[in-house]
Amino acid sequence: DRSGDSRSIEVVDNRTVVTPTEIMTNHYITGEGADTPISESSRERYDTLEAALESKPAMSEDDVKAALMSVQQTDSDRMHFTRWSSVYNLDSCSAVVWIVSPQNEEGEMDYDTPHRFSI
Length: 119
Fold this sequence. Notes:
The structure is a single chain. The chain is an alpha+beta fold. Helices cover 23% and strands 24% of the residues. The chain has a 3-stranded antiparallel sheet with strand order 3-4-5, covered by helices on one side. Strands 1-2 form a two-stranded antiparallel sheet. Strand 3 (84-89) and strand 4 form a beta hairpin.
């Protein structure tokens, strides 16, 4: 929100759990999902994003895009890959979303084509 508060909304054991966080990859943020193992890839990607945010707390859209590009997950089996990435601008109440192109067999994100939305 405008104050900078951000949350993850997860379903754990058929319950909705809301947790403060600025970063999400592919594992539960809430401690309640602790019985679900965190993959090495997800943990590395989360840690990389966390370090980027710690080194530059106020990031531009290009900074965020570069950080997201550095942690995108690709996989040719079309099962385990980054499907979308997004960044929200609280000043302009807008979002930019990058998605993977369905035609890209390697599952690479199309960071050259931003999709912009007013929120």
